[in-house]
Write a sequence for this structure.
């Protein structure tokens, strides 16, 4: 009789899972700016934000993601809206999500320049050395 070697399952630890959810919902750069402006008092705001916004957001996303699991639709906001409210709502949800992504990408590119400036030069002067045509 052959014994099957069972490999142990690997689980994600709670700190890793919580940071994954937090960074996915809030964004990495949104952690540092309030801390820079408010100091340690921002921790109270983070706890309130965790209870009021992040945990419900994660639970809602998990519920919708497990409810609508048809492989041919792909999942996501448009699928959730299309399956619950119809094709028109699915279309508008996709379009609005796409439209709000454009300013977000500009903001992220500027945040990358600021972060690189602090890493390389030690101050925020890299943006002044670049042309306005590079990043609006």
């Amino acid at each position: 009789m052959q014994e099957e070697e069972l490999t142990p399952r690997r689980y994600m630890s709670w700190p890793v899972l919580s940071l994954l959810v937090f960074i996915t919902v809030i964004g990495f750069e949104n952690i540092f700016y309030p801390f820079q402006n408010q100091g340690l008092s921002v921790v109270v705001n983070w706890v309130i934000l965790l209870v009021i916004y992040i945990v419900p957001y994660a639970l809602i996303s998990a519920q919708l993601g497990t409810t609508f699991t048809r492989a041919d639709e792909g999942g996501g906001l448009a699928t959730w809206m299309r399956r619950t409210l119809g094709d028109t709502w699915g279309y508008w949800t996709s379009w609005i999500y796409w439209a709000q992504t454009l300013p977000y990408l500009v903001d992220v590119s500027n945040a990358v320049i600021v972060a690189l400036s602090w890493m390389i030069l030690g101050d925020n002067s890299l943006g002044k050395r670049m042309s306005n045509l590079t990043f609006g």
